[in-house]
Specification:
The chain has 313 residues and is of the alpha/beta class. It contains 14 helices and eight strands. This is THIF-type NAD/FAD binding fold domain-containing protein.
């Protein structure tokens, strides 16, 4: 009978065999086989996948060049306007690149312009990307019913975050707390004493998106005063409130700073591999990163943020 390693070598090119050998030396045979058999879903909210190509056919060809076993799902044939900049989805591109290099066997990339039309299929891990926090919350809940591990993430300018929504093997710790709950429903007394200031930015931004004034849209530079006011009303303790400069940095652009996307994308890829392999402890539950500001806003940091009663379940 062929060994697991031999079965996974079938149909590989010489370059792929060399990559497999290197990965086996690092992770071991069982882990590498689990990675090659895994199903990972990447959900991109929006109408732009120009970091991979201009049409469905072009994106399909690009991904299959990176990973021949890639299964691509795109709702519309034309996926970007002619003036879209490829750098606008660097984070998703970084994750796809890292997962491809890691040897993920089955990678589904879904472009979703309307969250209500999101088609969820079973997967080992699902990652949701979206600049609109309200839509990200909704999409993350939809995929949480179909994936063993669910993460979501965004980078705007030099500000980024990742959130672990669900992890089947650590359900008592990491499951059952939606992103919206973690952002809007955690009392001040349940927050870490020196919570990363990016948390306050996201909390105020989501409160804005849910307001009647916003009509569901993500805030921009023109909304600085409104978001700053919400950071005062939504966050009761001064030590938890983000500085105005950090709010301005987050709001001034939706384009991603490539260096920050590389950091966050690399961290996400590590979490995906840990979830699939069962080796290593996953982040719980927020990961914050900012290229700006003081030590409590400018460092990469993992924070556990949820209501106390949820921690005990």
């Amino acid at each position: 009978m062929a060994s697991p390693t031999d079965r996974h070598r079938e149909g590989l090119t010489r370059e792929e065999e060399e990559l497999l050998d290197r990965q086996i030396r690092v992770w071991g045979v069982d882990t590498q086989c689990a990675i090659r058999d895994s199903v990972v879903s990447v959900v991109v909210l929006g109408d732009d996948l120009s970091f991979l190509g201009r049409t469905k056919a072009e994106i399909d060809a690009t991904l299959r060049d990176m990973n021949p076993r890639c299964n691509l799902i795109v709702e519309v044939e034309e996926v970007a306007e002619g003036n879209q900049k490829p750098s606008e989805r660097v984070l998703a591109a970084e994750l796809i690149k890292n997962l491809t290099l890691a040897g993920i066997g089955n990678l589904r990339v879904s472009l979703v312009s309307d969250v209500s039309r999101l088609q969820c299929e079973r997967s080992d891990v699902a990652i949701v990307f979206g600049t609109n926090l309200r839509e990200t919350c909704e999409a993350t809940e939809l995929v949480a019913a179909k994936a063993s591990t669910v993460l979501c993430s965004t980078v705007r300018g030099g500000c980024g975050y990742a959130f672990l929504r669900r992890h089947e093997r650590g359900e008592a710790r990491a499951g059952g707390v939606p992103l919206q709950t973690a952002l809007l429903d955690v009392p001040a007394e349940d927050l870490p004493r020196r919570v990363n200031k990016m948390y306050g930015v996201l909390r105020a931004a989501l409160a804005f998106e849910r307001s009647e004034k916003a009509g569901g849209r993500a805030p921009g530079a023109a909304d600085l005063d409104a978001v700053a006011e919400l950071s005062q009303s939504e966050i009761s303790l001064e030590r938890h409130r983000p500085p105005l400069d950090l709010l301005r940095n987050y709001l001034e652009t939706q384009a991603e700073m490539p260096a920050v996307s590389a950091v966050v994308g690399g961290s996400l890829a590590q979490e995906v591999i840990k979830a699939i392999s069962g080796k290593g402890e996953l982040m719980d539950n927020f990961y914050f990163f900012s290229a700006y500001g003081s030590p409590d806003s400018g460092e990469a940091k993992v924070e556990l943020i949820r209501p106390k009663e949820a921690r005990a379940t």
